[in-house]
Write a structure and sequence with these properties.
By secondary structure, the protein is mainly α. The protein contains twelve helices and two strands. Strand 1 and strand 2 form a beta hairpin.
Length: 270
């Protein structure tokens, strides 16, 4: 990857693939079916739960699981930049509209305690899902991912997702080649990027268009090798073990309990 100074904050798909295909850990050996099944449960939990203590616990569990997977922790912190920036940019506008106990005010804007809690709550929700998503894709071989996606999702949605995933590699490669060509001619630097944003914007657009040309060539190559509109994987992922099924059932029961407890239904029943 060409060093731009900010590329460390963008997930490196080559690194993701390397950890998925060539590394090993206890999490790598867990059935891909089980890892993918937990993802929607986690998304449902963090969507419904608003208790910041429970969300912090869920995030710490996903972070611990990431460490057990022997995945790069420092790299993950850099990769947190984009989701945190996205969440904060939206939540910062919302925290001033939450009613509750006043904390302080700036002119017509009033921040409540509940509004102040909203920001870390949304950040924890996003980071928990992002962390576990990286665990899944960085500990599951691509052949297993494509097999599960093709079996779970309907056609042509499964093909769109699989091809879009691979197309991302082509787009990044095209951008990298363009930047290398510019740097070899002394035409790329961060200060120049700040002063000539329109020019560099056209360069990035050109790299994106070239990636489409490359994708067209790849498409023709796939068709010449018998591609008929369906990308199939013959490498079936292993099924969960009995312990895996028990663990999934326990997670399902725990998720239901947490959802019920967070909605206050237990208090109403008592």
């Amino acid at each position: 990857m060409t060093r731009l100074g900010f590329e460390r904050h963008i997930p490196d798909l080559g690194l993701v693939t390397s950890y998925a295909e060539f590394r090993d850990s206890a999490v790598h050996r867990i059935s891909p079916w089980l890892k993918f099944a937990v993802l929607p449960l986690l998304v449902l939990d963090v969507t419904v739960i608003n208790d910041i203590r429970i969300l912090a616990l869920i995030f710490m569990i996903t972070l611990l699981l990431y460490a057990v997977s022997r995945l790069p922790l420092l790299t993950l912190l850099y990769w947190y930049t984009l989701p945190v920036f996205f969440v904060v940019s939206i939540a910062f506008l919302l925290i001033w509209t939450v009613p509750g106990v006043p904390l302080f005010s700036i002119g017509p804007l009033k921040l409540t305690i509940q509004g102040g809690i909203l920001l870390p709550t949304l950040v924890l929700k996003s980071l928990a899902v992002v962390t576990y998503s990286f665990i899944v894709i960085m500990t599951t071989k691509y052949n297993h991912q494509s097999y599960i996606v093709s079996k779970v999702l309907p056609y042509p949605l499964d093909q769109i997702i699989l091809l879009a995933y691979r197309f991302t590699f082509l787009a990044l490669d095209g951008l990298e080649e363009t930047i290398i060509a510019m740097r070899s001619r002394g035409g790329f630097n961060i200060s120049g990027l700040q002063k000539n944003s329109r020019f560099y914007g056209s360069v990035f657009a050109l790299a994106f268009i070239r990636s489409f040309d490359r994708a067209d060539r790849v498409s023709k190559a796939m068709e010449s090798r018998g591609y008929k509109g369906r990308l199939m994987s013959i490498q079936r992922p292993p099924n969960p073990s009995p312990v895996g099924y028990i663990s999934l059932l326990a997670l399902l029961v725990s998720s239901v309990y947490v959802l019920v407890a967070s909605s206050g239904m237990l208090h109403s029943l008592n």
